[in-house]
Structures are given as structure tokens and as C-alpha cells.
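re the bet — no i am not wrong, look at it urself. input seq straight from the record:
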Amino acid sequence: MTKTRARYQPPKAPATLPLDLPWPLLGNLSPQIFMQKYWHKCPLLVRQAIPAFALSKNAGFPMLSPISDKALFGYACDGLSEGRLVKAKPWRLQHGPFRKKEIPASSARDWTLLIQGIEARHPAAAHVLSWFRFIPDARLDDLMISIAGIGGGVGPHVDSYDVFLIQMEGRRRWKISGQADLSLRPDLPLKILARFKPEQEWVLEPGDLLYLPPHIAHEGVALDAGCQTWSVGFRSPSYRELISEGLWRLAESLESDPALAAMYADPKQKASSDPARLPSQLEDEIRQRIQTISFDQNPAFIDGITAYLSEPKPHAIFTPPDPVLSPRAVRACLQKMALVPHPQTRLLIRGETVFCNGDAVTEGQDRATVKAWQTLAQQHFLTQGRIQKASKYKDLSRVHSEKTDRGLDLPPLTKDNSLYEAYCVGWLSLEQVPILPDGVEQIM
């Protein structure tokens, strides 16, 4: 009798990560050492980064990816996820959503389907993304899954951002190069390097991981049908983009500055023989006003950049709960349930202010609400009850104790409370209190 192959069930990372202990995920490096020696510096290959795959294979029952091919094809067709279909020989690129018949059969060769933002579609992807919160949330982008037939890939290319490539099913051959020549082949729908000269080569099997910093040339080619590679990518905005967003939001804040509300006046203006020329006095007055703003010191400037970095991705969809509970009912639920951010909700803290999906949600709120938002941003859940824990890592931190009071003295929720407003629009949801899984050692 043939035993059905099980699917890997990735554990969710604890709210507080042990940053100074070795992790199998990082080749038995601690996150601190990884960031010092590899992050944004050089590639790192980790064999058996997820030990569960090797353990199950050695037992004679190799595991499958947490997400089936059928589910991924459904995400590519339903219009809720950004998808791309890449075919080689010749190179072709098609954007989703797709009709089912447009997606090649698993047995076909030389195709790759790329689906973005899977953390919003499947809890397994959200759990994997949680493993990487030793890197600031402001840098984290999303989890993309590449599923391919034999020979499938997107060609040799470079990325402008850091990426962790996790092999979840099948095998993929990776070639990388630190070459300086990054010129592209002309007249192609993809950014494919014109002269790729690989310097290193590996075949990754399920459970292996490859980290690549920006601007490392690389090419991945699927060796098995249904090959799945999970890519954890990071945001790398240009300084131009960040400063532009900060200035735009700073301009909004200037509307409340009384000094700038004064009208320009020139009582000492002399008769001009060159009326078409901008008056020098006007230039001087503007420069003086700009100096009083002190862009680099004005809190609205950096706050604006923080708000921008907390904005959700363009494809994010938030659905209000059905039914919408009253404020009192939500507060009562928090005795046994938790408020949890939607997978596409972004939370960032600057100073005491918490930004959620582009809004400064703590402005004008009482101290208890501010503390609650800060806890949500840091731990990604909020409850008032006591939580029963079961973990081998009781000595790591407060979150691993057998009994930990993670609750807060929440204020009485009202319709004007920003926590309740976020719940009503679907930015936060009520879920069962998360329990730290026993299998967390698989990644840590």
C-alpha cells in the first residue's frame, strides 16, 4: 500500500526571536552573525535549512511543498494575486490573471509561473515570511512562489534587492556570478543578461536555501516537473523615491504652519526696468522660509517616509468582517481571542507613533491604545487573556514561558478608537490565540 506523501507544515516564528542563537535556517549562524557577515555583502548557500525535509526523506517519505500546484494555479487565475507566466525558446512573458487553459501542464517543459504576495493567500507562506523578522519590517516585501516545468526559469538576471531562495519541491540548478558586466539582451520581454558568465553552481533540493545580496547575477533552472522555489524578497527603494515621498507628506503638514500662512509682501520693492525677471527679494524670502523648515530635522519629513513604507502593496485587498462586532463585543473577544494584522497589513513604529497601512493610527489616541498598537506592531497579535505555551525554548525570552501574560490593559473600545476602526475595515482580524508550535526548532 502506497502511503500518501505529507505536505510540510511550516511553523510560525515566535513573536520575539532568539537573535544570538544558531539557526539551521541560516546554516547554524545566529541572525546577528548572518547580518554582520552576509547581509547585503555576499551569497550564502545553506543545505537542509529546513531540516524536516531531510528527516522525512531519510525516513522514506519525502514531503511535498505546503501549497499544491492546483492551489497555486487557482491563485494565478482568480485575479487576486499578481502573476506572470514566462516561457523560453523563444522567451515570452504574459501577465495574469490567466485562464486555466493558458497554464501549461506540469509535464510540459520550459515554463515558469511566478505568483507574488502568497503570504496573503495561504497561512504557510505567512508563517515562512515570519521567519525573517530579524530583518526590519520596513525592508520586507513579500513571498513569491515560482512553479516550473523541467527547464523552466526566467533567464540569467540581477535583482536590485536581497532575496532568500527556498527550495520547497523538486530540484533547481542555480548558477551565480559576481560579474561587473550587467548589460541586457535587447528586444526581449525580460531583463536577461547578454553575457552571463557563471562562477559557482549548485543543485538545490527541498529544504535547501540560497541567499543572494543585490546585484549578484544568477540563473535558476528547474530540473523536475512541478519545481517550487519560494522567494522572500526585500524592498529596496531609491533615495529619490524616499525623499520625494517625504517631501510630499511634509508639504501637507505645512498647511498648519502659521508662519507660512502669511502672504508675501514687498513694501520696499523699487520700480523695475526688467519686469519679466523674478524679483531677487522673492527668492531671498523663500530661501529664508525654507531654512526655518529644516527638512532633515522636521519630524513630518521622516514621518512621511515611515507612512509611505507602511503602505500596503497595490494589490492588497482588505475585507471587513461579517458580521462586524460592536466595540464591546470585540473587547470581550480579546479575553480568549487575539487581534491579528491582516497578512497584507504593514505596521511600522517611529518614536512612539505607529503607522498602519500609511496612516498614523496612534495620533490623538489614549496611552493604552498607543501601547496596544505598539504591541501589535512588534508581536503581530494582541490579546488580554493569559496564554498557555508549550515550548522547549522556555529560557529564550518572555514569549516562551509556559505561562505568559501577553495581555494589556486595553481602553474601552469605541467607534472612534483606531484599533476598532482598523478591525472594521479588515486591517486587523479576530483569531484564536496563536500557540507557539513544538516544531519551531525546525527553523531555529
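see?? The two ends are 35 Å apart (CA to CA). told u. also Confidence is low (pLDDT under 50) at residues 386-407. so pay up
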